[in-house]
Amino acid sequence: MVTPFHRGFFQNDESLMHPYRDSTVTSAVMYSVGFTVPSLAILLLEGGWVFTVVARNSNYELASVKSKKSLIYFWLWRVLRVCIIFYFGVVVTHLATNIGKYSIGRLRPHFFDVCKPDWSKLNGTGAGSFYRPFPYIEEDICTGQDSALITEARVSFPSGHSSNSVYCMVFLVIYMQRRLLWEGMLLIKPFLQTVFLLLAIYTCLSRVSDYKHHPTDVLAGGLLGLIVAVLVLYSMKEKVFPTEQMLMKDSDSRMLLMEALSGHHVNEVSAQSAL
């Protein structure tokens, strides 16, 4: 089992004296919203984009079963590809966050509350000596019964909630900016983007008010999520936001797209012959 770096502390460190509280935004809620909302957005927006690509190449609606199936296959292929890229970024964010947590081992603001240190075990300390200047304490003097909670109190930097929520929402906002191009949306797109960003910001702020993290932990986590989202989308932009010309260079995408377009073309020729 991997254990975090055992960082010491000062007895009179007031930043570690906050009470333990339950999370306002639990991990289950954060991951559920952070994964579900972008996945649904990718499903819907890729569908709209695929329809636009096919419709741009024909004047008739799809009528044959073969053409409809080809269009669905191409749509699902695009959804799968973008989702793989999105979740690749999730994994990178998670790994980078945990590397920081376990290598730095910063103590959470509620560390004393869950550790319940026995100050009498320290040399030269005793009752009434709490506010005297003491040396840096590295020995284990915790008396708390929940060892898992004590271990968790040693992984404050950076904030996992902040890094993951910011990554998911920034990825979604940038993706919407490039994919949601319908003119009839007016202010709906910026409104939705603002809501998603506010969700991430609220999650970050709740970690401070719940005494789960120090403000710098949250800032570092948010910055990490932002950097990963931008780097993933920039490095994979030809895969996430391909032009029709780029699709023709990709063998798998070209095959599925050509099947959809060929079925569309067959319908067009049949309609013209009937006339």
Provide the fold topology.
Layout: H1 27-55, H2 65-104, H3 111-115, H4 147-152, H5 160-179, H6 188-209, H7 215-235, H8 237-240, H9 244-249, H10 251-274
Write up what this structure looks like.
It is a multi-pass membrane protein. One of its GO terms (molecular function) is phosphatidate phosphatase activity. The structure is a single chain. With 275 residues, the chain is mainly α. The chain is built from 10 helices and no strands. It has helices at 27-55, 65-104, 111-115, 147-152, 160-179, 188-209, 215-235, 237-240, 244-249, 251-274.
Can I get a quick summary?
The protein has 275 residues and is mainly alpha-helical. The chain is 64% helix and 0% strand. The protein is elongated and about 80 Å long.
Number of helices: 10
| Share of helix, binned | 55-70%
Strand content: under 5%
Number of domains: 1
Defining traits:
disordered C terminus, 275 residues, elongated, mainly alpha
